[in-house]
């Protein structure tokens, strides 16, 4: 099917296929690049958040480790000795030493924390918080202590006992250590993380809300609502859309605090260069397509349209229409080509007209030749008949034949026109049948032709050879009475004159042989009468006109003379 398309259509299809291929490859490449960058963004966000979580967990671990180790300090163990109960000076001295060690730890630690030591047996409290009086309350340690850090009044608090087995019943412990630090330490780390990585980290807890950095973004609260409605695991990431902007939210749960370290990045903002490049490419492709369409339209108008006109003109010329002329207003190579085509078509038209005129002259000569062959044929039959009648002393038949022969020659010589009306043909046929009736007394004939067909024209002596054959080959060989029937009809501009006889008739094979003989060139083995009639009708009225044979209802042969009203001059 592709081979049937013209060159312009093939070029257009090739352009469309290449455009689709380029767009497909670029779109696929762009999607792969975006997918790779998104993957890197997600990994980078998780790694940055993981680094931040490790930093927080490291500081919390140091505080927890100190809380575990402080119970083994010699000053604290000595402070718990019963014999120091009644020596105030020594107790104050040990208390000062314990506070000094705790202050030294705070000075060496990254995070300044508040350390409080509870001595249940002595009902005393030692704390690094100099600005707050912390009394010992027995009802504070009636419930088991939490094994992890807790969030209380914007501070994270962790408690441990000595021995550690007293966590479930802290009232029986020798020492209860309480370490707490404010959330501004975490806020400071969040600010540093945001400054170094240009993110917007915060900490989230489903119950307590969030701890944000000093300058939280506007989307933190919206992302908080997304986190609260999602099922969070120990770590992972989720994608959410806020204000038509897609964000990737990464989170890691703190093993110590139970909170989630959260950070999010806007995907579109990071992918904006790629998106801009993609949009620029598509815009360039759109401009290229528009320019290509303009070029293709120009080519179509300047090349394809003239080519189509030239192809159409060539087809019409090949179909025999030599009157075709091409009009082209623009001045280019096609105008010269169209001019040469018009000159060629004009010359071909002149040649065809000359050939056609020559063909008409040849056809006219052929018609006259065919008609002249009938004249002597009929004359031979008449002369032989006169000779036979004279030999038989039949004076009436000789006179009638002589008169008929005179009328015949008067009929064919009175006008140079080769055509005759049906009325004239029937007058000649009737005269001929009356002569034959005189010769064959057992022959009868009927003529039934409507008035509408009497003035139509046919070649002269069209019917006489057919009736002559009906008498010679049909009526005469049969000893019984014979009958010839002539009638006519006209339907859809097709005229038909039928001649039937009551002779012996012919078989289907004989009919087929006669039909084929009518189409062959004339030779010595076939009669020229009916062949001439068929050839003249075909020459004058086309291939659908001529003689057609069939079986007659009278028992003999039926011959249909068929022609159309349109005369081919």
Automatic annotation (TrEMBL):
It is found in: Cell membrane. Its main location: membrane. Keywords: Cell membrane, Kinase, Membrane, Phosphoprotein, Transferase, Transmembrane, Transmembrane helix. It comes from Paenibacillus farraposensis. The lineage of its organism: Bacteria, Bacillati, Bacillota, Bacilli, Bacillales. This is Histidine kinase. Residues 301-353 form the HAMP domain. One of its GO terms (molecular function) is kinase activity. InterPro entries: Bact_2-comp_sensor_kinase, HAMP_dom, HATPase_C_sf, Sig_transdc_His_kin_internal. It comes from the Bacteria. Coiled coil: none annotated. The chain crosses the membrane at residues 7-28, 280-300. It is a multi-pass membrane protein.
